[in-house]
Design goal:
The structure is a homodimer of 369-residue chains. Chain A is α/β, with parallel strands linked by helices and 369 residues long. Chain A has 15 helices and 16 strands. Chain A has an 8-stranded parallel β-sheet. A 3-stranded antiparallel β-sheet of chain A has the order 1-2-3. In chain A, strands 7-8-9 form a 3-stranded antiparallel β-sheet. In chain A, α9 links the parallel β12 and β13. In chain A, α7 packs parallel to α8 and α14 packs antiparallel against α15. The longest helix of chain A has 28 residues. Chain A starts with a strand and ends with a helix. At the A-B interface, α13 and α14 of A face α13 and α14 of B.
Chain lengths: 369, 369
């Protein structure tokens, strides 16, 4: 099926791992951050620009593409890779998270989830089987099991029942899968409870998937809790399979996730914040809207080598933002994604060189200056 | 001062001319279309993308940049070229047209125009001297005289007085000019009256400018009137100087303008229409919003060699438009500007080859299919 995962080396002081994902559309060096292309486009960016800043794999959203333009249309146009002109690996989520966060009037049963579209109010019924069917039509290299992303906080009993159902849904996803050129990942749920997370992980491992994700985090819990739950999960996740922390997170979260043994991340933060003028830098966040940027001829981050920092001043970027110019959103997106992807590159090099602890100290020290 | 105009050859059957504008930031082949970069950015495009589709010179707007971010700020940041990262020729308009079309509560006197900013309602007084001062701070290669763009329709007496004042303002602009590395163009006014246009042209020629523009067209008059007024003007405009038809127009207008002896054009049409989904093609306009595009795997224009047409389907572009994705506006803008710039390239080659009449016939024939 063309999918595999090679562990290249492990950090001596932490659970961090350096690996390679093998997919039908090429290899991906891990740990990796996946830019989010919700509607078959990473907002504001061309595929060539994504390549230029070193994106190896992107994520797209099943829920959105199912509703518009429709997965059958994308199938007729050669699948998602061809439709959007991206010839490198893609991961699609299952639609589970979006059904719970975007749609209205959802009703969950053992069979699946009935929900109303956020676009036109139409009714839909999403099941594990349909989720896999949609994802097979889209044709991503990695597809995800349909899961319930439980609300936070939630009662223990609810979380336990929800996690057990997510595991049953995962089995149905595996059974429904027809294509043999796509990897299928299971999703560990169980809220902020160690025993539920461990049960979820071991049950999924028993079914057997190509990779395992940690779902239901970054939903409102504190950072220490998020890091602790991640640590519980990675402690029991299969060593030889890729580990994906879904929807996470800040630059700090990436560093902390890697140290706890995570291989893959995705988050809208770098792209969404770019469009509202918040930029990530080696010294922390910079709000380009600030008056202090108005007459500042220096680049966003003097340590950054991205197109935006090589060519434009803070003064110009602030002007573009205030004038509502699309180029501003583009240049900010290039910078933020470059920052995230470059951070992951630095992390990979630090793991290889056996100096991840030093890297982490230096990462935090710069931000405190 | 680094500015000049070379006439390379003239069409045998029309007034069309093939020339070269020499500017401090390089040569520009004419006839030329200038993409509009109102707020120090051609909307959605990077400078490199503009280069890639063959843009030789762009236009930027004095009125907008004066109000935001302010010409003194741009001067401090090395002028407009450096501020926006465009190292090729730029033309700035005088602010005259925008004062009349964008601002509120304007009051015109011999001295200048008092107006309220469309951004914050603040009061400003723009004079010929201030317009030149702003344009010198911005530092474009070609700057324009401050003129009154009279409303249409307007009484003959009003148009005559307005035109005479515009000529007096032109003299004041020339007197106010300090920098010797910028070309200054005079603007011919006079509404739709032959004798006023001729008087305006000859009075301006007597003062002496580096080039001459036809202002006050494309303001609501019919196409035959616009073409006729253009013809009256070019008949009396100095042969050895570049001729610029301001704010025009459709692809048909460019062909008709060139045939009547125009060397330079600018218009927001290709960029603005791109953002609302109207695309220019060799067979006429295409509305990407049309249901007929929804499942259409073909490119926008099979004859087009732009990035958008080489890589993406109508179905994808329609999806991006419907999903409100910025990439759609970008890809549409690339296509429309490529169409305009390529049309001008074809026109230049046709003039050189002495087959402009054949080109014009073929241009119209394709659109009638």
């Amino acid at each position: 099926m063309g999918f595999g995962f090679t562990l290249k080396n492990k950090d001596k002081d932490s659970r961090a791992r350096r690996g390679v994902l093998h997919t039908p559309h090429g290899d991906v060096e891990t740990p990796v951050f996946m830019p989010v292309g919700t509607q078959a486009t990473v907002k504001t960016m061309t595929p060539e620009e994504l390549e230029g800043i070193g994106a190896g794999i992107i994520l797209s959203n099943t829920y959105h593409l199912y509703l518009r333009p429709g997965h059958e249309l994308i199938r007729r146009h050669g699948g998602l890779h061809r439709f959007m002109g991206w010839d490198h690996p893609i991961l699609t989520d299952s639609g589970g998270y979006q059904v719970f966060s975007h749609s209205e009037l959802r009703k969950i049963t053992e069979d699946g989830v009935k929900f109303q579209s956020h676009l036109d109010g139409s009714y839909h019924f999403l099941t594990p089987e349909l989720s896999v069917g949609i994802q097979e039509a889209l044709g991503a290299d990695i597809i995800m099991c349909f899961d319930e992303c439980a609300p936070y906080p939630a009662a223990y009993d609810y979380l336990a029942r929800s996690m057990e159902m997510t595991t049953r849904w995962a089995r149905r996803c595996k059974d429904a899968k027809v294509r043999d050129d796509q990897a299928l990942f299971g999703i560990i749920q169980g809220g902020m409870h160690k025993e539920l997370r461990e049960k979820s992980a071991s049950d999924l491992a028993e079914i057997g998937f190509d990779g395992y994700a940690i779902g239901g985090l970054s939903v409102g819990e504190t950072k220490p809790i998020m890091y602790e739950v991640t640590e519980w999960a990675t402690a029991v996740m299969p060593e030889g399979s890729p580990r994906y922390l879904m929807g996470v997170g800040t630059p700090e979260d990436l560093v902390e996730g890697v140290i706890r043994g995570v291989d893959m991340f995705d988050c809208v933060m770098p792209t969404r914040n770019a469009r509202t003028g918040t930029l990530f830098t080696s010294f922390g966040k910079l709000n380009i809207k600030n008056a202090s940027c108005a007459d500042d001829g220096s680049p966003v981050d003097p340590e950054c080598s991205c197109y935006t920092c090589r060519k434009y001043s803070r003064a110009y970027l602030r002007h573009l933002h205030h004038a509502g110019e699309i180029l501003g959103m583009r240049l900010n997106t290039i910078h933020n994604l470059h920052y995230y992807l470059n951070l992951m590159k630095d992390i990979r090099e630090a793991i290889e060189a056996g100096r991840l602890t030093e890297f982490r100290n230096s990462f935090y020290n710069k931000r405190e200056v």
